[in-house]
Design brief:
The complex is a heterodimer of chains A (449) and B (177). Chain A is an alpha+beta fold and 449 residues long. Helices cover 31% and strands 24% of the residues of chain A. Chain A has 2 domains: 313 residues, Alpha-Beta Complex (Naphthalene 1,2-dioxygenase Alpha Subunit, Chain A, domain 1); 104 residues, 3-layer Sandwich (Rieske Iron-sulfur Protein). With 177 residues, chain B is α+β, with helices and mostly antiparallel strands. Chain B has a single domain, classed as Nuclear Transport Factor 2, Chain: A (Roll). Helices cover 22% and strands 41% of the residues of chain B. Classes of the chains: A alpha+beta (449), B alpha+beta (177). Strand 13 of chain A pairs parallel with strand 7 of chain B, so a sheet runs across the interface. Bound molecules: FE2/S2 (inorganic) cluster and fe (ii) ion. FE2/S2 (inorganic) cluster binds next to loops of chain A.
Chain lengths: 449, 177
């Protein structure tokens, strides 16, 4: 049995390397994290009409997400109640029913078993169709149009699960007019543990100047981030440049003030975005306040626990689907603001794919790191060691306006520590009641020295 | 990709020229001479696209949203950026060097829509070796337009690849396809 208490030490900012390697830890993660947490499914904009569906995975469970006649979205395990074959092979589409390809059992978009071939002849009419519907995902809900699902009916609401992070997420997801995803996603294999890209996106601004030394130089000469290139010096003190936040649920981000613009490859494209931001900022300020209007104009890298990451600026939106301890499927979309002119949306999507898509210049640079930090732990001696996420330790604080815990420096590892704090809590807790009981004192493990 | 089954095939002479073009292109790209490729074989008005189709049922025409995602949607400047990355000397993913090796086959050439243009189909198999243990393979079809410049030489004006491997096991497509 895994001793989870030894894997993570939040106070000192260290983690066992075994979390990127061991099969029994992985199995526990599937049970205790992926079968209990809210997981990203799709966006309202990708399934606008009744009968619109997409297929995806929650952990390693295949699910269908489908809009009902009444407009609600429900999700079902994509496996037939007869002998278990998949009932939907397409990635997306519009349908009135899901028909199993093995013997032809047919399910409605509400998951109910509607038709059984030769029902009278071979089942003598004794099959109880009512109890043979598709297994339903217990909870489905959306936040600012982003749809998440949760297998555990005792879990808190999605809003509660996002907790303090919701306040931050609204600064880009919840702006006037709203946001949407441009689909379909790219899908690619990476040979890394699912947590490695999550912890990279949650706030690793340290790697930007080094891992991406060539691409920042070639692609972002007009960006303030360009100044990080080579990790030689900072253009301003890190605390002036931005901050980190973490939250009860492990969600976090690094935010670089004023960094949202200048990340596209031509001056014209950057000017178009700048004009959009300038026009929108007063409206954002009116709805969300001045602080979040500032965040709206910032560059972000963030992760929504456990496996959903995003960037503001390059506007990528990612899900890391686990495929065992050493492999993932990366799903990648572009997010845009709904009211943006069509041309600007296309510009953003094109730039996103050039940097963070399957042929993305920055994406591929990250992948080697994600993979090597996973694979080295095949060595029994190597994986005895611990990993260091101590950057910014001791600088955490609470803020009068910004919820959760923040740390003034966007090159920081506060959000890494917050991610793994909650990761450990999830692995240790037997149920959501235990997690609820410990909710009130989560800040202590970060603030008490 | 609509194949031009009834389009006029190019002459034997032009067909040889097209074949030499594609083979030279393959050699330049595979031997890290992309700069030479860009300067001597790529038309400044190039449109270079690689896309992936979402898998939908044949009968399903009603589904919402885009059906494709573009891995590449590059013009000349974008391609130049990709080439420039390695030239910075700081593109760690290409150091130690990746080794590419491709086979180009099933080449067909047709007269294009405009004079001096040829529509060229070819199939490609690429193996990428990198970092001691990694070997990845990619197979795809190319739908190209070559244009004859004022200097009489062919240049790549358009390449469209409908990339068939929906879930890319070879991690990424960070090379010229
Ligand atoms: S397994 Fe689905 S109909 Fe038999
Ligand atoms: Fe990165």
């Amino acid at each position: 049995m895994v001793d989870v208490s030894k894997l993570i030490n939040t106070k000192d900012g260290i983690q066992s390397r075994r979390i990127f390697h061991d099969q029994d830890i992985y199995d526990l993660e599937m049970e205790r994290i992926f079968a209990r947490c809210w997981l990203f499914l799709t966006h309202e904009s990708l399934i606008p009409n009744a009968g619109d569906f997409i297929t995806t995975k929650m952990g390693q469970d295949n699910v269908i997400v489908v809009r009902q006649q009444n407009g609600k979205v429900r999700a079902f395990v994509n496996s037939c109640s007869h002998r278990g074959a998949r009932v939907c092979a397409a990635e997306a589409g519009n349908t009135r029913s899901f028909v199993c390809s093995y013997h032809g059992w047919a399910y409605g978009i509400d998951g109910s078993l509607q038709g059984v071939p030769l029902e009278k002849e071979v089942y003598n009419n004794q099959l109880d169709k009512f109890t043979h519907g598709l297994v339903e995902v217990a909870l489905v809900d959306s936040f600012c149009g982003f749809i998440y699902g949760c297998f555990d009916s005792s879990a808190p609401s999605l809003r509660e699960f996002l907790g303090e992070a919701a306040w931050y997420l609204e600064a880009w997801m919840g702006v006037p007019g709203g946001t949407e995803l441009i689909g379909p996603p790219s899908r690619s294999m990476l040979y890394c543990n699912w947590k490695t890209p999550g912890e990279n996106f949650i706030g690793d601004m340290y790697h930007v100047g080094w891992t991406h030394a060539s691409s920042t130089q070639v692609l972002f000469p007009q960006s303030p981030l360009m100044a990080l290139q080579g990790n030689a010096s900072l253009p301003a003190p890190a605390e002036v440049m931005g901050l980190h936040f973490t939250s009860r649920g492990g969600h976090g981000a690094a935010i670089t003030y004023g960094g949202r613009g200048g990340l596209y490859t031509t001056a014209r494209e950057n000017e178009m975005l700048a004009a959009w931001l300038a026009a929108q900022t007063p409206k954002v300020a009116e709805r969300l306040g001045e602080v979040r209007a500032k965040l709206y104009n910032s560059a972000w890298d963030g992760t929504i626990f456990p496996n959903n990451s995003f960037l503001v600026g390059p506007n990528t939106f990612k899900v890391w689907l686990p495929r065992g301890p050493g492999a993932i499927e990366a799903l990648t979309w572009t997010w845009v603001e709904k009211d943006m002119p069509e041309e600007l949306k296309r510009i953003i999507a094109r730039n996103m794919n050039q940097t963070f898509g399957t042929a993305g210049m920055l994406e591929s640079e990250d992948a080697d790191n994600m993979e090597s930090m996973t694979q080295v732990n095949d060595g029994v001696v190597t994986r005895r060691g611990m990993l260091n996420a101590q950057m910014g330790l001791g600088r955490e604080r609470e803020d009068a306006v910004m919820p959760g815990i923040v740390s003034d420096a966007m090159i920081n590892e506060l959000s890494h520590r917050g991610f793994y704090r909650y990761y450990q809590e999830m692995l240790m807790a037997d149920n959501w009641d235990e997690l609820r009981a410990s909710a009130s004192n989560w800040k202590k493990s970060h603030l008490e020295r | 990709m609509t194949k031009q089954n009834d389009a006029r095939e190019v002459t034997r002479e032009v067909r040889d020229e097209i074949e030499r073009f594609l083979f030279r292109e393959a050699r330049l790209i595979d031997s890290e001479q992309e700069r030479e490729w860009l300067q001597t074989m790529v038309d400044p008005e190039i449109k270079y696209q690689v896309f992936s189709r979402q898998l939908r049922y044949r009968k399903d025409t009603r589904g919402s949203g885009d059906k494709e995602v573009y891995f590449f949607d590059d013009n000349y400047a974008d391609l130049a950026h990709r080439v420039e990355l390695r030239e910075t000397g700081m593109q760690w993913v290409a150091d130690p060097p990746n080794r590419l090796r491709r086979i180009v086959g099933n080449i067909e050439g047709f007269e294009g829509e405009r004079a001096g243009e040829y529509r060229v189909y070819s199939n490609c198999m690429v193996t990428r070796n990198r970092m001691v243990y990694e070997q990845m393979s990619y197979a795809y079809g190319r739908d190209d337009i070559l244009r004859r410049g004022a200097d009489g030489k062919l240049r790549l004006l358009q390449r469209v690849i409908d990339f068939e491997e929906r879930f890319v096991r070879g991690k990424n497509l960070l090379f010229i396809l």
